[in-house]
Amino acid sequence: MRIARFTTGDEPSYGVVTGDLDEFGQPADDAVVVTLAGDPMYVGLKLLEQEHRLADVRLLAPVLPRSKVVGIGRNYRAHAAEMGSEVPSEPLMFIKPNTSVVGPGDPVHYPPQTSDLHFEGELAVVIGRICRDVPPEQATDVIFGYTIANDVTARDLQRSDGQFTRAKGFDSFCPLGPWIETDLDPHDFVEGRRVQTFLNGDVKQDGSTTDMVFDVPSLVAHVSSVMTLLPGDVILTGTPDGVGPMEVGDEVEVAIEGLGALTNTVVAR
After folding, report:
1. CA 20 to 30 Å from 141, out of 193, 199, 221, 267?
2. Residue numbers of the domain that contains 48
3. How far is residue 160's CA from residue 194's CA, in Å, rounded to a whole number?
């Protein structure tokens, strides 16, 4: 089931998106979104007798993290190699503030503090209930679903600061969307899902979740052993190799097999 957050010009609503995706991760022309009674993490899946053509609504970030976005660094072997780093012996965590989250179609703001802004297409895990110390075998109990992320990074600030907070924490540095897919299993990513990033239509990243060092259940277990996770918190699972710069005016699309595509444009701040 694909859960979207959207607006028709009024207050944001939640809904279920119908229809299949084409080979480019786009929904069919006749796709509709059926309105839900409220945030499904809190009120459940209560469908209303109201629907809209998907083409007539504006999709928003499918989740507004209640407290945090937890990123995982160098979790793809090929990406660790391209960064000249060793594969971590345990997940390398960092925090992106929830104010960094924007939705599909929203601009990514290029701040004046950096001159080397990079895209990082990623699979994102959305937590569905409060949890701590979750064993890997129970991770599915706390996962609400999956969405797509772009872990935007000021690479020069990452190098100069020696840690990730400023480099990854600017407003708009965490596009999420277009919706949350609830019907996938973590094993699907072990078997392999294609992760691609396109810059102005050109493929820049083309990897597979089979290259992940730590799988989704391991990441949920590791993060929850350190901090309590709340409904709506997001875990970014790392990026394939091929990361690179983007400039003002560029369009960046991240597509993940079976999840859809997330597109944003870079603008000057």
Report:
1. 193
2. 2-60
3. 32
- In this prediction the pTM is 0.97
For residue 89, what are the contacts with CB-CB under 8 A and spacing of at least 6? none
Q: How far apart are CA 54 and CA 59, in angstroms?
A: 9
What pLDDT, in 10s, does the model give residues 33-76? 999 999 999 999 999 999 999 999 999 999 999 899 999 999 99
Q: Which residues pair with 76 in a beta bridge?
A: 212
Which residue from 58, 60, 62, 54 is spatially nearest to 17, judged by alpha carbons?
A: 54
Three-class secondary structure of residue 224 per DSSP: helix
SS3 at position 115: coil
Please report, for the domain that includes residue 23, its CATH number. 2.30.30
Categorise residue 26: left if φ over 0, alpha if ψ from -120 to 50, beta otherwise: beta
| Each residue's pLDDT tens digit, 206-221 | 999 999 999 999 999 9
Looking at residue 161, its amino acid is D
Claim to verify: residue 149 and residue 262 sit in the same structural domain: yes
In this structure, the chain runs to a length of: 269
Q: What are phi and psi of 189, to 5 degrees?
A: -85, -25
